[in-house]
Amino acid sequence: MAIKSISENRILTAAGTVIILLWSWMKFAQHELWKDEWQAWFVAKDKSLPEIFSFLYYEGHPALWYLYLKIFTFIPSLTGIPAEYVIMSAHLLITAAFLYVFFFRMKLTWYLKVMAALSYFMFFEYGVVSRGYALVILFTFLLTSELQKEHSDDKKSALYYFLLCQTEVYGAFMAMALLFYKIRRDGLDLKKGIPAYVYGLMAGLGIFTLSVFPRTAGHVASTQPNAPEYFYRFLNSFQGNLTNTFAIGSTPDTGAYGWSGSGLFIGIIILTALNRILGRDKKILWTGIIFLGMMLLFGSFFFSGGVRQWGMTFIFFLALFSMAAHNSVLDKIAVRISMVIFTFALVHNARAVYYHFSIPFTNAREAGHFIRDNVPEKVPVVGINKFEITPVIGYAGRPFYELPDGVPFTYFRWVDKIYLPNESELRLFTKYKNVGGIVIISPKILDAGRFPNAQLWKRFDQENYKKENYYLYSLPLK
């Protein structure tokens, strides 16, 4: 091995160790799990395997993340380790794995790898926040590193294509785009039979479609009740996938404020820059165009998304950068453009980390711990708005109740409508549970006219990143 390679490996080993330590510190000492992080855990923990598969079309995510979490769900009850630490540890294993693959199997220069690893998406959005998107990164990098080999293993590639389709819809888009690249580069001689990797993708797409396709009428529409017309959604998607991804922080968040003339203009500049980076290898360039086209169409007709979803475009183009470097088509100008893009992501990551340490992510942990420490187990806690209350349940370590059914719950369904009970229903529930009173938790102040006897016990409304507050009430039977 060349001296330069040994030196670079040492640098990457040191950088990777520091990054994993930083992830561990931020996760276990600072990060507060959000509702999306708790939701997947509760679905994995409280449902059997057949129930998980039948529930996925409410979630809009394939099964792999839930099945992976299922392996860890016995640990809290067996060891007493809090569930939040188990979730973070399970996620940390994946992030450490994709970091290893990125550092030691991908072909970018070491300083570009370190910059990318410390970017907002790889470090914070997919590294600190414990979501299944980390699996997309892992299998995209594994598949890309396999495609970079002179003689790739078709059976191993087939497995990666299949598993990538079970991560997220964006993973399925990546798999299809990378299949295009594979066929365009190596050709496809059907006289010799269909290769294993084609079967892997077809099987992956088939199971993805059967498990995730929203069979409930109006499911997609219910997640976007105020979505603009398709043309404006296309502009939002264009700006989000380009400006808010490759020049993140240069304009306000498109998901919150919509597209703007300056945002679209920067997006066009980004598109030109990406063409300059990848354009010397038309196979790689068209692979990127196909993926971006799928992202834009999906954002226009199904789900507009936000920074978390648009970051998948950053990850895929990172894989394409590696393929371009492997094929020796990244010249000095392309490297400098890449460094500018990574600098935007580095600065935004520094901002995100600063805010993460400055204010709480939400007030769910404080509310949940207060309930855990101050509300006896025999006193029922009724949640108003399951969607917002889920993270409080996680930190309280106990299920809450919902009306009108009066049954305990942990997870929610995205298509459920919010039911707001009145005080007489709450009193009937109190009598049914044979207790002297109940506790109510709500993400908003309750209407005094609707709940005249509910007494505000505790407010959890200090400044927080997600602007999610909670109000705890007591309601005596008499």
Name a few traits of the molecule.
mainly alpha; 6% strand; single chain; 2 domains; 64% helix; 478 residues; two-stranded antiparallel sheet
Walk me through the structure.
The protein is mostly helical. It has 2 domains: 3-358, no CATH class; 364-476, no CATH class. It is built from 22 helices and 6 strands. The strands form 2 sheets. Strands 1-4-6-5 form a 4-stranded mixed β-sheet. Helix 17 runs antiparallel to helix 18 (307-326) and helix 20 crosses helix 21 (386-396).
**Strand element count:** 6
Radius of gyration equals 24 Å
Estimate the strand proportion.
5-15%
In total, the number of domains comes to 2
Shape: elongated
* Intertermini distance: 80 Å
Class of secondary structure makeup = mainly alpha
Q: Please tally the helical runs, counting DSSP H or I stretches of 4 or more residues.
A: 22
**Helix percent band:** 55-70%
Spans of at least 5 consecutive residues whose pLDDT stays below 50 are 216-227
Largest sheet: 4 strands, mixed
The side-by-side strand order for the widest beta sheet comes to 1-4-6-5
